[in-house]
Amino acid sequence: xxxxxxxxxxxxxxxxxxxxxxxxxxxxxxxxxxxxxxxxxxxxxxxxxxxxxxxxxxxxxxxxxxxxxxxxxxxxxxxxxxxxxxxxxxxxxxxxxxxxxxxxxxxxxxxxxxxxxxxxxxxxxxxxxxxxxxxxxxxxxxxxxxxxxxxxxxxxxxxxxxxxx
Length: 165
Known about the structure:
This protein is mainly alpha-helical. The chain has one domain (2-164). The chain has helices at 2-11, 17-41, 50-81, 102-126, 133-164. The longest helix has 32 residues, at 50-81. The radius of gyration is 21 Å and the shape is globular. The model has no long low-confidence stretch (mean pLDDT 87).
């Protein structure tokens, strides 16, 4: 009975495979929105002010960072929790595949969230004259919460690695 339960529990990891495939669909949706934004701004590129163009570019950078985060979570999560990716020898392979454990993935996600939050905060600052001061304060507080959380997670990760070695 114990062996059956263990085999069944181990097999349930495959329930995550559709979740990671769903992330590839989320990546496709993000790519569509990215190019929608590019095509939306192209006709107005000459008449757009520099500040507005910078805001659009920051929005595109934000989407690119989110896309990278999706790819990291999708591939690393699949490799860590479902199965190793079978990539034939000689085919293009991302250099970090197979090297990111759950702990390093967590740190990459945290640092990506801080980077995304930084870009968003920069966009807010670029348009600060149109943002009420109390909202601006909350954006900074939320961003600093992400920064401090990532720092604490990194510090705790370093402590646990130091104690186990």
